[in-house]
Amino acid sequence: MSFFSTLPRLFKAVALAYADDINLICQILCLCGRIFPELERAAESVGLQVNGDKKVQASRR
User: Source organism's superkingdom (predicted)?
Assistant: First the structure.
């Protein structure tokens, strides 16, 4: 199991644990997503949407 295959579960756990701080988490993911596209894809898979200008918005499911 590779590190990147565990990212969606990790992000979901972090997002659920720190729902009040979701804006900070989104900013961190946005920055990391610019450096590591895999992080951006993992964030999107758990409901964090990245729009065209690389701003991240959380959608709670």
Answer: Eukaryota
